[in-house]
Amino acid sequence: MQIPVGHAQPTNLHFHGLPVTPRNRKVGNVTYYGDNVLVCLPAGRSHIRFRIPENHDQGTFWYHAHLHGLTDDQVSRGLAGMLIVGDSRRYLPARFRRIRTRLLSFKDVQAVNVAGRWAIPTNRDPRIPPGR
Ligand SMILES: [Cu+2]
């Protein structure tokens, strides 16, 4: 997975439900980042690489930006996604194993009223209480 990081904000990635390493690894002149919420990915292109064991639980998991102080702002603006490991349909009765899988995720966006206007809290606007 390669994460393009713009210059506007730093970020990182955190994976829910995957017991993956938080360690960074350097191969040649490329750094592969682990799942470490304390890492601040530098601007430019960053690489995240880890192995999911063959015997990992199957199911749907999710990942999101988790840079402390910017998490709510970045996640509510879309820096999150779903990740499917394996195909858990094989546990269904035979007649359901070929059903189409659709992914659906819900996010909440918390808006606050500032001086009569609704706004999404960000960590950049001092008038609005910051999120996590
Ligand atoms: Cu999380």
Sum this structure up briefly.
This protein has 132 residues and is mainly beta. The protein contains one helix and nine strands.
Write the layout of secondary structure elements.
Elements lengths: L1 E4 L8 E3 L8 E3 L2 E4 L10 E5 L10 E6 L6 H6 L3 E6 L26 E3 L2 E3 L13
Parallel strand pairs: 4-5
Antiparallel strand pairs: 1-5, 2-6, 3-4, 6-7, 8-9
Structural account:
- There is one protein chain.
- With 132 residues, this protein is mostly beta strands.
- The protein has a single domain (2-119), classed as Immunoglobulin-like (Sandwich).
- It is 5% helix and 28% strand.
- It has one helix and nine strands, in the order ββββββαβββ.
- The chain has one helix spanning 71-76; strands at residues 2-5, 14-16, 25-27, 30-33, 44-48, 59-64, 80-85, 112-114, 117-119.
- The chain has a four-stranded mixed β-sheet with strand order 1-5-4-3, with no helix packed on it. Strands 2-6-7 form a three-stranded antiparallel β-sheet.
- Strand 8 and strand 9 form a beta hairpin.
- The protein starts with a strand and ends in a 13-residue tail after the last strand.
- The mean pLDDT is 84.
- The site of copper (II) ion (CU) has 4 residues, from strand 2.
Strand order, sheet with most strands:
1-5-4-3
Here the CATH topology equals Immunoglobulin-like
Going by CATH, the architecture would be Sandwich
What's the structural domain tally? 1
Helix and strand pattern: EEEEEEHEEE
Query: How far apart are the first and last residues' alpha carbons, in Å?
Result: 25 Å
Q: Main sheet?
A: 4 strands, mixed
Strand content: 25-35%
The low-pLDDT segments are: none
- Tell me, briefly, the overall form: flat
Mean pLDDT: 84
For this entry, what is the oligomeric state of its chains? single chain
Helix content: under 10%
Number of helices: 1
User: What is the class in the CATH system?
Assistant: Mainly Beta
Give the distinct bound molecules.
copper (II) ion
Structural class, please? mainly beta
* Rg computed from alpha carbons, rounded to a whole number of angstroms: 18 Å
Beta strand count: 9
